[in-house]
Amino acid sequence: MPRPTSAKTDPSLRAAAQAAREAPASVAALVLDVLSRQAEGRLLFAGKEHVAKKAETHGVTAAEVGGEDVLLLLERGPETERQRALIAALMVEGLRGHLDDPKRLERFARHADWLELSTDYAPYAAIDPVLEDDAGPVWRAVGVVPAATGSEAAAAARRTLRQVALRHSVHPVAAEVRGDAPSAARGVGDDEGADAAAVEGRLMRLPPTGFRGLLRLVSGFAVLEWVVRGILFALGLRRPAKLRVVEGGLRLKKRVVLLGRVIRETDETYTDRAVASVGRTHRWPALPLVAGALAFAGGVVIGGVWLFEGMRSGETVLLLAAAAAIFIGGGLDLGLSILLPARKKQVAVELAVLPKRRFQLVAVPEARAEAFVAALRDRVTR
Prior knowledge:
The protein has 15 helices and eleven strands. By secondary structure, the chain is α+β, with helices and mostly antiparallel strands.
């Protein structure tokens, strides 16, 4: 029977889901193919020859995922809970390319029934941790009651299995399929539904304003920040995040990714009352501000050069360095945060929550940002 599908309650499943998401698509497709054939033929093991043939078909010559040899596990079968969780997670990850194919999802549900009831695999438990917000189509397929085949007891077992799987899922589509209705008793962080407003982008801290902001530019600290960001970016550090309107408030899901591997993943929730302000940076109104700031900084630099050439004094080097710091800091801070996203029709969604938390998601598609801000404002001002 399926285990609860919250990855937070099962460390081995959480690790397996993460490894599956990072695995090559060909490896996930191979595992889905092999386990589907295994379930279709009611086989406990796929066999070395069959695995080798399927691996050749999918162009897989070596498949090490999460420190495990996937080809070897498919040939002889997994022996530990960690290995079984990894294979089940890879099978579910293989569905990612078939989420718009109802027939393929229906086949998966049939095969998952047999694997759950006849083997130690638990593919239903891996659906939410692996596919996360994209799991809706799979749960809709699971919610379709299979036609009665074989004995009445077997049909009842399959129906019960799917009911338990749906009950353990935290996905809103699973709740819809099993007939749960949203109520005031639901806590913050429960999804409103598959169409809930959400934005994805890179998480960044909002720079300070007023005197602190001016001091940051003049002191050259803005330059230092961008240098550090550039180094971390070159090292492969990314901070993707997803901000979603949910029942009762907001959910912020953020990750720290280094060289393609998630090294930290956290969820934060905020109530509607904690939202102090929300907005997005507009495309055109900010451009005069940017142009003016850069023109001012450029004038300071040119003036410093002229002064340096005229006086040829050591003290003017400090003035030139300060002017250069203003120019570089202002240019990078304002230009890269506003001008470059504007060229791509991308904006930043800025959010302030009580007591003193301010952040922004940058590189958000303009249409998505407008829809999200409108939905959140409607919620907050009710």
